[in-house]
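Q: How do we represent a protein-ligand complex in a form that can be generated token by token?
A: Start from the inputs.
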Amino acid sequence: SLLDRINAVDAKIESYITVLGDEALNRAKKVQERIDKGEAVSPLAGIPMALKDNICTKNVKTTCASKMLNNFIPPYDATVSKKLYNEDTVLLGKLNMDEFAMGSSTENSYFKITRNPWNVERVPGGSSGGSAASVAAGMTGFALGSDTGGSIRQPASFCGIVGMKPTYGAVSRFGLVAFASSMDQIGPLTKDVTDCAIVLNAITGYDPMDSTSANIKYPDYSKALINDVKGIRIGIPKEYIAEETNPEVKKAVLDAAETLRKLGAQLEEFSLPLTEYAIPAYYLISSAEASSNLARYDGIKYGYRAEKYTDLLDLYIQTRSEGFGVEVKRRILLGTYALSSGYYDAYYKKALQVRTLIKNAFNEAFAKYDVLLGPTAPTTAYKIGEKKDNPLEMYLEDIYTVSVNIAGLPGLTIPCGFDISNLPIGLQLIGKPFDESTLLRVGYTFE
Ligand code: GLN
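Then emit the structure tokens for the protein with glutamine bound:
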């Protein structure tokens, strides 16, 4: 029925790049047979899922929504893909995104623009816009996205669903096409917090294939789903409910906070310094890492190769000029500049120093609070085309999400209301490292 739904609806939403059809049906039938035989199966057995198109799937095209990888078929599965297959989930297809996960609106895809299911004139957010839109429009059971600076939480907010960016190191990045390796993290986009906990149980865990994977004991996240927030200390950063934040967003977020207070949580406003430096630090660090990570697309090893070139250098130049879109080129240029000798100290090193200060500021906050609460984004979903030609304005929209990646913390977005145009508003909860459980516990209150 979900494949029928995709057929009926996705021409309007454009969330899928690849749909698997018969392959998915056959797999579902096989799982059903095993369930009929009474075999013990995972809670995810037979559940249809879809993956952002930067997560490698063996024998299934993985494009990163780029011309560069238009025909790339990975010979291996990402660790998360393998883990979910092991739970007997059924892959329906691969989802649209901003090219190489660079963007906040899914307008930077080489293939198509995904639309917000609540209003098709609006963006679904990004870069995991296909993931969020497919869940919101009922075209998959759940989806995975990736979040380097907000790309799970912000589209979840714009599409009125639940999105979790786990602690850096909690989910293996093996097989996730790298954007900014020190911040990239895979996470679930789901209809509710319960589903989020179930998917998190399946994808977290130590993986020797990822050198930054944390070798710790991971909890059973479903144990966090208990209707009780008594005594939980929640801090609201003043800077997160500042003037830039749309008043309707602010009101919905503060109403949610008030609900938690009535249920016994302790709430307090406090100042989280350095919030204004998070955007420049994030865009310098992420672009620097991206310029290095994307050096591999040279037209030789795999992916697109220009047809016309004179010599080896010209092959590189033509391939990269034709294969990458405007935003990706902008990041490569910015990152290469920030890393070049003479500028390194002034930009990249400075950004790393700011990163340390931001981490320290969060550490201080978490000495006082268990959870931080604020909006996911300063606005609701904006119109398609509205910010596309103004990258700086679009970057500023990431103000409340990027610090979480800079500090490697977990962040959960849950829906908390609608604005006057009936567009969803997202609440963001930020937690201590590896304390996804407390975020789920607080989020579950609203279920
Ligand atoms: N919007 C941010 C950017 O463009 C975040 C992207 C992401 O999290 N992948 O870099």
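The first helix runs from residue 2 to 13. Residues 48 and 213 are 27 Å apart (CA to CA).
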